[in-house]
Amino acid sequence: MFGRLFGFKSSQEAPRPGVSPGRPNSSLEELQSKLELLEKREGVLTKKVEDELAKAREFYSKKNKSMALQCMKRKKMAEDELTKIACQKQNLDTLIFTLQNQTMNMEVLAAQKRAKDELKLVNKKMDADGVDNTMDELLEEMDKVNAVSEALRQPLDAQVVDEDELLAELTEEMNDVGISQTTTATMAPAALLPSMPGVPQNALPQHPNKAVDEEEEALRALERELLS
To answer: Considering its fold, how many domains does the chain have in total?
Structure first.
């Protein structure tokens, strides 16, 4: 009974199924089980402290100091036990947290080892020299393909016309035609233009404009009348 209450395991207790000793998971389960027992014990002691305090108050109200002191002593013992349990729980929490982290590190390390082994297997099937040889062979085959494509592009007509040569011939012909036209235009006789009448050299006689003189005279007469 006391073993179950304080979390002690009997020597005849069989190991739990699915839990193998020496493994992190089994240790975690064991620590968590002990932590649950401490929490249960903590609940019992907390209730005992409350009960003993209530009894001490009742005895003290009845002037029974002796019984009240006994209750207070039991309350003090329960409180001391609660302090110890709090320390034990803190230690178990620390161990659980540390073991969980270590278990995670172990899983990560195991995954890295598996990845390393797989990389070794892959590298055995593929090395740098083999890759270089493969690339050289691939480039060689590509050169063959390009050579075949270039051969298929060749015209079937045996008389291949050089386009640059044709353009040079056309330019030469155009230059010859331009020179011929320039020579013909230079050697053609000039057309005879009709003779223009001569310009008289003597001064033309001046004829007074009588109408203008009469208008000026009329204007001057009008001004004189206005001023008089």
So the answer is: 1
Instruction: Please say whether the beta carbons of 50 and 78 come within 8 A.
Output: no
Write down the residue that tokens 């009588």 correspond to.
Answer: 210
Closest CA to 49 of 70, 77, 7: 77
DSSP single-letter state for residue 159 = S
Assign residue 73 the CATH number of its domain: 1.10.287.1060
Average pLDDT (132-141) is: 87
Query: What residue numbers bound the domain in which 100 lies?
Result: 23-117
The whole-angstrom separation of Cα 6 and Cα 83 is 14
Which conformational region is residue 22 in: left (phi greater than 0), alpha (psi within -120 to 50 degrees), or beta? left
CA distance 148 to 141: 11
Q: Residues 56-110: pLDDT tens digits?
A: 999 999 889 899 999 999 999 999 999 999 999 999 999 999 999 998 999 999 9
Q: What tens digit of pLDDT does each residue of 180-192 get?
A: 666 555 555 544 4
Helix axes 65-125, 24-61, angle to 10 degrees: 170
